[in-house]
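Quick board copy: two proteins, each given as sequence then tokens.
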Amino acid sequence: MYAWSLWLFERGLALVNLVAFASCYVELDGLSGPNGILPAEEVVMAKLRSKVPGGRWQGCKAYPTVFWWLRADRRGLHLVAWACFAAGALALFDVLTPLMIAVCMLGYVSLKTVSQPWLGLQLHAILIETDFVYLLGAPLRGLCPSICAILVSWLLFRTMLGAGVCKYGTGDVTWRDMTALQYHYETQPLPNPISWHAHRLPPWVHRWSAIGTHVIEGPLTLLVFGNAWCRLAAAVGFVGLMLVINVTGNYGSLGMLVAVQCVLLLDDATLVWLHNCTAGWLVGPLPYPAADPCSWWAFLAGLVLALPYVGVSLVPFYTTFHGEIPWIQEIAGVLKQYRLLDVAMLRAQDAWKFAWKRFDQSRLGFRWRVLWSRLISIYSVIAPWTICNRYALFGSMRQRRVEVVVEGSNDRVAWQPYVFKYKPDLSRKAPPFIPGHLPGLDWRLYFLPTDILRGAAVPQWFAAFINALLDGKREVLALLRENPFPDAPPRHIRSSVYGFKFCYDETDRTVWWKRASLGVFFEGSRETSTDSDP
């Protein structure tokens, strides 16, 4: 029975939506407002209307957002954000929970469409799909809460296993030799003070932490489909991993969301056992809902709702495993050194090819190909809604930290830096703790320098950001911690790439970072339009 579990899950999901909208709202004007970096109405919606000339409904299919009917100006953006915030608050207090979660999901999808550079991360997609999965099982939540538990468990399995598989699929050397965490704490998007200390741990701690990560995101995910004790072990592993990740870094509401998903791995009997074993401090006071009357017809109706989603979700899930995975090829190379194993592998390979050929030529194989093509077609239709996604979290590890430093000047001689709120800099302030908050500009700037060093063109949003600084837009400057030109904007701005490392100066422990210049890649001035240097 999952009556208590579902009640706790609903309250937790409402809280995560509240936190996510609060994080989005505080930067909405500076990122997507009329005077923001990429104004939603003048830039984004204008471009979408030019791409889809077929009308509002046709446009909504390709780019789902309520702003086909509302103006995406400051009033419209704030209206959607406040409506979703109110819906999350009502759901938190168990007022029309399915309807309120639906409002939150539609609002988040709408804001994501018009704020794509800022809300286009996997962390946002996980929340949208979790809302959708809950809504899929919500019609039967009073009759068969187990359906919601099955759907959320399937999503959690795909998320965690996808994170584990992608570490091999990318061919990242550091994950294969277990040295990834020797770099992670220093090179992650937004470190905090604990990251500085975690980076100094002995290599053997990092190595065993990497091994534990592989176990949790690999074999442990299969326990999701086991009995109550197996699911409890999986939940402990997932929550423990997220706890370490979020204590040593700033990842918004990711850890909170995974913990909420893990609630539905525990049935009511497990929750009662945890409540009794911990004297109520772990689970807290349990509500007293009606017993789970999951009859056979309600369960079958739930399967009718769930199976189409599970089938379509196999399409993005399959892409996680598609293609050659380097570590499998390496293991095969080692085994081929021994003749007996080599012969056995060749025979197994021949047997697999023969069986697959027979299946492919059979009537069942033909029906499978037809079904798979239809699933792909359905997925292509719903993909813009991000309600069914491919997840590959932390797939590759950077071995050095590269940051963008933006500086302004009036004479091209004395350059003064703009200081971001959450990114590393040379000030003596410690890296911040920002639990629950996912700053869009700071996160997007984290990925920019690596693309620049690979020869990619400067993206539109960054050129727009530089122009906003040259124009002295107050909403954009509010996204920064320090503006070196409070009276008037500078005449010139340049953007440089620097390599950053943690500083361990025993004589001065107030210095957190040291850096080395890697060159200037972008310049702009008020006299001419911004352009990029070769």
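And the next:
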Amino acid sequence: MTNNKNKDIEGGAASAAGGKAFKKTLEEAGTVKLSPAQQCGRGIIGDVRRTVGTHWFKEVTNFNAKTIPVSLLVFISVIAPTLAFGASYGTITNNQIGAIETMLATSWVGITYSLIGGMPICIIGSTGPVLALSAAIFTMSNSLGVPYLTFNAWISIWLFGYTVLCGFFDVTRYVKLATRFTDEIFALLIVSIFVLDAVGDPFSDDGLVRYLLQSHPSHEDLGEDNPDYNAWASGFLSVILGFGTTWLIFFFRDMKESSYFNQTIRNLIFDFSVSASVVVWTIVQHLAFPETETETLNVPDTFQPTFSCCDSSCTTYFPDECEDQAEAWGTRSWFVDYGDLKGKSWTIFFAAVPALLAFLLCYLDSGITWHLINHPSHKIKHGDAYNYDLILLGFFNCVNGMLGLPWLVATTVPCITHLHALAEKDKNGKIVHVHETRLTHFLSHAILGVCMLFLSLLKMIPRPVLKGVFLFMGLAALPSIQFWQRLLNFGREFERQPEYAYKTWVSKGRVHLYTFLQIIFFAGVFTVQNFKAIAIVFPFMTLLCIPGRLYLLPKFFNGWELALLDGSDEEIEEVGQAKEAEAATAYQINDYFEDDEKYDMESDDDDDDFDDHNSPQYSKAVTVRAVANESIHSDFDFET
């Protein structure tokens, strides 16, 4: 009798202690805190020590079975957009910057960053907002009456200065206020861009299905010198090449879990799936259909500056502005003349104004991508280096301005592609380990540099094949995005929805409301990104997602709901345990707290027991979850 009484007292004490702990956890859940500033350069020093200073040797010697195939994959994911942006730069700058300049910038920056950068998994390249800004600067330089490359070079110097100040005062810590809410909006946006660009973008004339249209620009170019050119045959073959490439990649990747061959061969097929598919369908194009032309990569013929001059002043472009001239006088110098300001020295100081906008684009475009890649769920262990890498980015773009090359920032899709290619995943597609190395980044951009010596070889790759690769990249990334899964949940049976932590504790209506609010923010960012006239403010629209999460969403949701829907893996686990403890208290499951230090929220000694299906802790958790789940999804709130 006395023993039972003592046991009840002990159980009640344990329950009280656990209750106090879980209430505090739930009260503090869902809050996002700004980390203390590391000013006066301490943040830069800390970044270098944490990344390059600690892991450099291991990263440059981490050669394994993934190194070669991942290097080829990154090269493929970089080369097509590099050439596409190069062509766009040629259009907006009157060929003062073109494909060669874009290739050279991407190559040298990628090689250098792979050796000294703090986050070598991240890929640096051209982006749409920076292209839009460059167009605005070109227009501004014409209005001011100063050469574009000179004006752009002075802006680059100011840009470098801004990045140094930002890193010195640790301003990059504000990017870390972004949560899964913002990261997944940005990730789904970038993935949607890749999928739409590959299949058929309603906002442009690009995409595989658009090859079937007689009005596609490629048909005019290919048929100009070929009277026997058949646009229908070319379009149909392009569709087959593109979707065939995507299908074959998935087929090769599925071989990893098949019963054919041994595990070593299956792993090789999986790792080389993208490269092998590109080779196979390129051979199909040239051997099976040699007489049917398809669009190829827009590659220049020789390695030299794009701008060919009509005369020694090099202010007019050959041949467009001197059609009667037989040949060009030469090309522009690789080095920009900083003194060529046409007597308007004040523009040196005026350049600080557009440089501020360039800095904000660089800060936001790169910062959001870095934050997305370094999300805790990606299991990157070698740390981040926001301040250090932002300064490096400023330095790279300063050199690019000096050479008349385009500015570069962190590019989201190649970064995601690189990350997932280096990752080891479980059967559910969750990342369990990442091979953190500098070699894949270095080799992929070294290959790009070598290709500038063999430009004609790049023309052998059909552009529809690379469209198929981009479609694969987009489709492969979709399942790992919770936002996408919750969109699908609108039509899914509840029992067949993915088993995320929020499914047990947050009602279906609340989850749908959270998804609906995320859709609104996504629609705003998507709309801005797809209209060229306002595309320059795209990073700023993405930035608005952060205050939206910090100040708007708490008006609709409890903190613990936001933690389960939006928190890190550690926070989700902690809040999930607190909700179990709360449910156990509400349903008077007092033995839930007995002999279990884990649920007093003060010890992690029994973490392994919680995942052990034979442990008493696991049995208690299952019981509590089952009772709570039934109550929550039958519209009963145990908190009341």
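Board note added afterward: Confidence is low (pLDDT under 50) at residues 1-17, 595-613, 635-640.
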